Amino acid sequence: MADLDFVLRLLLAAGCGAVIGLERQYRSRTAGLRTQALVAMGAAAFVLFGSELGVGQGSLQIVAYVVSGVGFLGGGVILRQGLSVQGLNTAATLWCSAAVGCLAAGGLVVPALAMTVLVLVVHLLLRPLGRLVDRAPDAHAETIGAFVLTVRALDEREQEVRELLSDALESPDILVHAMSSHPDGPAEKGVVVLEAELLVEGDAAELLDAVLTRMSRDTGVREMSWRADDTPLEVRSRPRLGRA
Questions:
Q1: Is the CB of residue 82 less than 8 Å from the CB of residue 9?
Q2: Which end of the chain is more exposed for a tag (fewer CB within 10 A), N or C?
Q3: In terms of domains, do 121 and 154 share one?
Q4: Range of the domain at 46
Q5: Which of 55-61's residues contact partners 24+ apart within 8 Å by CB, and which partners?
Q6: Is residue 116 a contact partner of residue 20, using CB atoms and an 8 Å limit?
Q7: Residue 37 lies in a domain
């Protein structure tokens, strides 16, 4: 391959990456203009290097290494904040920029340009569509929150109440993070407190109230409540019961 052809393919890769990066830079994303251009150009350089060596399937092997390497690079821009994950779009865009670089390295000018245009179309046209879907009536119904469910039960019925609680929490929308128990203290002897740390998806009030309703049928349960950090304490109590 002539040196001029080598350089032109690198420039094509860098130019397509820069076009993709312009949109990311305008959105103030982590991987912007320079990062996208460098990823595309670097992927092209590696593939071109493999073809220059002229070793059988060397170029295809290098493409596979580029794919896995960019995957690790994309992992660096993915951030987790609480229960939400940010940076997935940026990581996917880096992967697409690497693909554009590989296409450019293969001399596939039209596919490289088409890939660049499609990446921009996805970001520019599907973004408003995604926001429109987010504004649908049920869009905010599927939320995830952390809650603590507390059950005060008779000490002698702890095992039965614990099993009943585990059964009541068996739901695809409820994830039990931890469950613990401790004596109620000097306030009332013979009573144990069970606490379950939960992650609830959807309408937490409806789901947890259903759990409390089911638990209230057991005579070993004295009092129940659930709470969240950002909501007031919701209490569902039953009258005091004597020992069974």
A1: no
A2: C
A3: no
A4: 3-134
A5: none
A6: yes
A7: yes
pLDDT digits (tens, 9 = 90+) for 114-142: 999 999 998 888 877 877 776 655 544 45
Distance CA 127, CA 231 (A): 32
Instruction: For the chain, give percent helix, strand, coil, nearest 5.
Output: 55, 20, 25
Classify residue 242: in a domain, yes or no. Answer: no
**Conformation bin of residue 107: beta by default, left when phi > 0, alpha when psi is -120 to 50:** left
Record the tokens describing residue 244, joined without a space.
């069974």
Amino acid at site 213: T
Same domain, 150 and 76: no
Total domains, the chain: 2
Phi, psi at 182, each rounded to 5°? -160, 155
**Residue 163 and residue 54 share a domain:** no
Q: What pTM was estimated for this model as a whole?
A: 0.51
Q: Are 224 and 216 in contact (CB under 8 A)?
A: yes
Give the total residue count for the chain: 244
